[in-house]
Amino acid sequence: MLTHFNEKGLARMVEVTSKETTHRVAVARGSIYMKPETIMAVKNAAIKKGDVIQVAQIGGIMGSKKTSEIIPMCHPLMLTGVDLNFDVLESEIVIESVVQTVGVTGVEMEALTAVTIAALTIYDMCKAIDKEMVIGNVRLIEKMGGKSGHYVRQGEDV
User: Fold this and answer.
1) What's the pLDDT at 24?
2) How far apart are CA 15 and CA 11, in angstroms?
3) What is the tally of structural domains in the chain?
4) Which domain holds residue 111?
5) 15: in domain
6) Average pLDDT for consecutive 10-residue bins of the chain (158 residues)?
7) Of residues 83, 124, 130, 157, which has the active-site annotation?
8) Are 100 and 146 in contact (CB under 8 A)?
9) Are 27 and 78 in contact, with CB atoms under 8 Å apart?
């Protein structure tokens, strides 16, 4: 059942007043794929715009806090924690976010937004040397809290 439509079929923000307040956590992951020489420039701090990972960390945190401003039906949330981790591999940077709150609705969108904005920040900082970067495989890995309980992604794309 789609809950973002009212009885007239028009878009609405879901009413969550009666939902139980719980500790909620979401983990998301995604990658930005790039040329090995771009990876080396990131590792060697040779990107003219600055420390790519540090700036992407801040961008991801800022993005998670602005999710309700860019995703139309998201509730504004008081986030109690946001962290991102970056795994710099041979031809990709894997980005993982962990977002937390205590509230009546989950933080999956905030975790996904954090990963996406961090990847876009990396793209912006490295585009002068690599315009062929690809952002992809952004997905929810795990969520905890709320009525639907604990979810852990299964399969090869974890």
Assistant:
1) 97
2) 12
3) 1
4) 22-152
5) no
6) 75 84 97 98 94 98 98 94 98 98 96 98 97 98 93 89
7) 124
8) no
9) no
One-letter identity of residue 86:
F
Q: Which of 104, 59, 110 is nearest to 81 (CA)?
A: 110
pLDDT, position 14: 82
How many whole angstroms separate alpha carbon 74 and alpha carbon 12? 10
Report the residue count for the chain. 158
Query: Is residue 144, in this structure, part of any structural domain at all?
Result: yes
On whether the CB atoms of residues 97 and 118 are closer than 8 A, the answer is yes
d(CA 30, CA 12): 29
124 is catalytic: yes
13 inside domain = no
Structure tokens at 117: 């904005």
- What confidence score (pLDDT) does residue 88 get? 97
Q: Specify if 12 maps to a domain.
A: no
At residue 2, the pLDDT reads 60
CATH code for position 96: 3.30.70.640
Q: What is the pLDDT of residue 5?
A: 81
DSSP code, position 139: E
Q: Which helix (H) or strand (E) holds 55?
A: helix 52-65
